[in-house]
Amino acid sequence: MSIRVLRTVLALLLVSGTALAEASNPAPVPSAAAPLPGEAPAIQHLRALLGPEIGLRYRSATVLDGAAGDVRLEDVRLRGPGFEMLVRTWTALGQREDGAREWQLDPVTWHGDDGLMLSVRQARLSGLAIRQPAAGQAMDLVGLIGAVRVDHLSLEGAAHGLGEVSIGRLTLEDYGLGRLSRVQLENLAGPWGSEGLGGFNLARAGMDGFDIAALALLQVTGTPAGPARMRGSFLAEAFAMDEAGRSVASAGSLRGESDFEIAADGRITSADRMVLQGLALDGVAAVQELLTELGYQALPGEIALESRFEQQGGRFALPGLAFTLPGFGQITFGFEGDGFDPQAAPEVAAAQMQLLSLMVRYRDDGLLPRLFAMLARQGRMTVPAFRAQIIAQLAALLEGPALRPLLTPAKLFLSGQVQELEVAARPPEPLGLAAFEDPGLDSVEAVLARLGLAATAR
């Protein structure tokens, strides 16, 4: 990938994800416009920073302070591989070859050759520095992610397309490899639903304590740049969805913490906890009717999610991803796999991965007795009779040899003698997608036998 689009920082991190994607297959573009005769050194420094493949043109320029490198450009047009960017007024203060003390851009419009359009009413960037590559070496995307440093970036009035998705304000502080960044967002809004009658709004969100540059390098390369440890937090508040003027869903807040570590041997581990408070499904009448029928007044005041992830090379594991709804229950998923290649295309990565184990566990916290009571009423049966019927139906379903080991634990759980049931798949040997093309796997029984299913009741 090329340096040029992000170098425009220009998309100002403002469209960083999309700009990087566009740069992956750059189209030929005209060479950058040569410096004009007598052009101020501050503008020459700006051209040097943008690189030779970013064309910089402008209607007029005013040198504010030649000694300090301060200049203002009017009606600016930048053209590079896959994009064009228009800036009505660009004020560069403290301009130098490796960066600038401050940029002020009002307003900015980004046009991608693929039809993407982004706009920003006002952008402010300070403390920009780009470490140049060694002589004779080109700056690629990986190098650029680690080479860029920004003390502060703020975007006011950002919008995607013709205002489909908008952001009131977005700020980023202390971006750069080895720095713990802070991100704040206000008033994220946009449409939802196929008819275009619905909308969503998030009042504010933020995260703190993450080395975003290091995480970006890991995302792009799939390989850790070096040992790192960070403990970050994030918060989102006041989320709402509506349709045709009626509230559909809302949530008070989502708070979370994450411990992320890249060890010296390359092993990656993360432990995360999130708590969702004040979830309400106002516009889904069927949900409220079901809750009432089960004897609940509303959804729990807090819904928690906890997870732990581990990866080293192609081997990865999620020992536990647990959703907890107090008064309802807890469901936990776990898996372990091998052959993961983050750089491969999705279909190739899926074909290469192998399943080592898979687990799902449910611990009841009051939902199951309520559910059985409701279903028994609807069937005009007693609860014991309904339980007996369910168990008999399950026994008929699990009569095959591969499924029979599941029957006793399931009976204990459905009869109410235990509150937890776990079903796990542990194949005798690693199981990839290609295994399911085996002519021998011509029945559900054969597939389940290959999975190595087992159940445990607690």
UniProtKB/TrEMBL annotation:
Look up keyword Signal and say if it applies: yes
Q: Identify the keywords attached in UniProt to this record, alphabetized.
A: Signal
Q: Which residues form the signal peptide?
A: 1-21
Task: Please state what the protein is called.
Answer: Dicarboxylate transport domain-containing protein
